Amino acid sequence: MADTEGKTLELIELNAKTRATTGKGAARKLRAINAIPAIVYGAKKDPMMLSLDTVEFVKIIRDHGNTGLFFNLKIEGGGEKAVMLKAMQMDAFSLEYLHVDLHEVNMDRSVNVSVPVETIGECAGVKEGGMIQIIRRELDIICKPTDMPESIIIDISALNIGDSVHVEDIDLGGAVEIPHEVDFTVITIVPPATDESEVSEEDEDLLEEPVAE
Predict the structure, then answer these.
(1) In what order do the strands lie in the sheet with 164-166?
(2) Rounded Cα gap, residues 165 and 91, in angstroms
(3) pLDDT tier for residue 202 given thresholds of 50, 70 and 90
(4) Whose CA is closest to 85, among 41, 53, 46?
(5) What local confidence, expressed as pLDDT, does residue 64 receive?
(6) Pick among 3.40.50.10330, 2.40.240.10, 3.40.190.10, 3.30.2350.10: CATH of 10-104
(7) 195 vs 161, which has greater pLDDT?
(8) What residue spans define the domains of the chain?
(9) Could you give the count of Cα atoms lying within 13 Å of 28 in the half-sphere of its Cβ?
C-alpha cells in the first residue's frame, strides 16, 4: 500500500467590499472597474452582497486551484468571517469571472468538500517502463475545516506494474473521512503500451503465404 498524507489547510486571506446594487447592469459596472460580484450565504442569515478585487482573486485561484478553498474573509468596515468557496461563474469565451458564491462556515462543524490528489516519489513500476494512471484526481472528504487537508498526497515509490491504490488504502486519520460505497481505484500502474504496428517475423511469414483458392 502506498503511503498517504495531507497538506494542512491554509485559511487564505480574501478582501471584500459590500455592495448595495444588484442586477446585470450593476454587475457589468463592477467588472468594468476590475471587480467581481460576490455573495456570502450563511445559516439563518440574510445573504451578504459583496465585491472582490479581480487581481487578488485570480492570483488566489492561480496559486491554490479552485477546490476546497477556505477564506478568512475580511469585509471592509464589516469585520471578518470564515467562508468556503461554493461556486464560480465564468464567461465561456473570455474566461472572465462573472460571479462568486461563498458560504459562511462554522469551523467546529464538518463539511463535505473535494480536494485534489497528488503523487510523490519515483515509482518503481515507471522505472520498469510502466505508466501512472491517476483515475481520480479529486476525492470528496468530510471533516471540520480545521482538519481539512489542502490535498491528498500519495507516495507511489513502492508501486510496481500492476499495483493500484484504492480508496480504502488511503488513511488520513480519524478526523477525515472519505465517503464511498465501493472500494474504487484511485491510482494504478499499467504496463507499457504495445505498438500494434509491430508485427512478429512469424506473423510476417503468414501474411506472405498465398491464400488458397
Answers:
(1) 131-134, 185-190, 164-166
(2) 37
(3) very low
(4) 41
(5) 85
(6) 2.40.240.10
(7) 161
(8) 10-104, 111-190
(9) 3
Q: What is the DSSP string of 11-79?
A: -EEEEEEE----SHHHHHHHHHTTEEEEEEEETTEEEEEEEEEHHHHHHHHHHH-SSS-EEEEEETTTE
Instruction: Tell me if 115 sits within 8 A of 179, measured CB to CB.
Output: no
Nearest-angstrom CA–CA distance, 76 and 27: 19
* Better-scored residue on pLDDT, 213 or 195: 195
**Confidence band (pLDDT; 50, 70, 90) for 206?**
very low
Average pLDDT over the chain, rounded to an integer: 84
Half-sphere exposure at residue 68, Cβ-oriented, CA atoms within 13 angstroms: 27
Distance (Å, whole) CA 85 – CA 12: 11
Task: Find the length of the chain.
Answer: 213
Amino acid at site 51: S
pTM of the model: 0.66
